[in-house]
Fold this sequence. Notes:
Blueprint: E1 4-11, H1 17-30, E2 36-43, E3 48-51, E4 57-61, E5 66-69, E6 72-74, E7 78-81, H2 92-100, H3 109-116, H4 118-125, E8 135-139, H5 146-153, E9 157-161, E10 170-173, H6 179-187, E11 192-197, E12 203-211, E13 214-217, E14 221-225, H7 232-236, E15 240-243, H8 250-266, E16 273-280, E17 283-290, H9 300-307, H10 312-324
Parallel strand pairs: 1-2, 1-7
Antiparallel strand pairs: 2-3, 3-4, 4-5, 5-6, 8-11, 9-10, 9-11, 12-13, 12-14, 12-16, 14-15, 16-17
Amino acid sequence: MLKKNIAIIMGGFSSEYQISLKSGNVVYDHLDKEKYAAYRVHISKDKWVYIDSDNREHRINRDDFSITTAKGKLTFDCVFNAIHGTPGEDGLLQSYFQLLQIPQTSCGYYQSALTFNKRDLLSVLKPYGIKSAASYYLNFGDPVDEEAIISKVGLPCFVKANKAGSSFGISKVYKKDELRKAIENAYKEDDEIIIEAYLNGTEVSVGVIKYHGKTKVLPVTEIVSENDFFDYEAKYQGKSKEITPARISIEQEKQVVEMARKAYDVLKMTGFSRSEFIFVDNEPYMLEMNTTPGLTTESILPQQANEAGIGLSELFESAIIEALR
């Protein structure tokens, strides 16, 4: 059987560069080497390179996303997208690969761009009965009216970069005089901001994947942060407990699974996704959706797949099978 050539793209242009390298290497280590010839491709602002087994760099030809090797030109049957943040999670690379007609494992360019924009995602899902926190929007250069913000979302509230992941550019604000500093912090990551009411309740994360051609919701994970909220430290430096399956009622589970499935299907998603919700009076409120979620062994989606009896090799292979379908 001829092995399929798979480019695992990792890195990217955002603050999530290192986390993405970690995810990409986990995919590389777990892909079935009997079936796939896997190639690690680092994408950064400066260069696009294939890293060989001796850690040497080979330039990617961006005209057709190929590499020139000693044996000649190498092209790819499929791209496994492990880039968190831009350009792998916001539609840029999805469009590029679609133009080149190379299948890739994450969702389409429109879905990527939409879900990467928290404000747009939540407003598109609202008519489908998917609830979200009261929010206030700011674009860079807008006047900051603290009174108007607080009267809309109350205190405490969350100030977030609209298009960023891994909790970069996010602050929890308790007092009016902390608002401006939080807004400046968020503007370091993006020129758009979303300020949201604080929702007090159980936070859960729900993975949804395409599996054997069908939408499959994975077991729900409960997030218990030791920090004030599920921030970068909580996500990546062990300052949180992630409990799978979540300690929620059967009714709560049924509701959030239905919401996550509905959001995935309404948006015509493909590939992996992980959505965050908070329960308020037993009702799930959506915070965001990630379309290239973390794939390290500690990451939530692999934990959920494992709970569902799907090992990493099978999880990653399923994404390639769906992309090639």
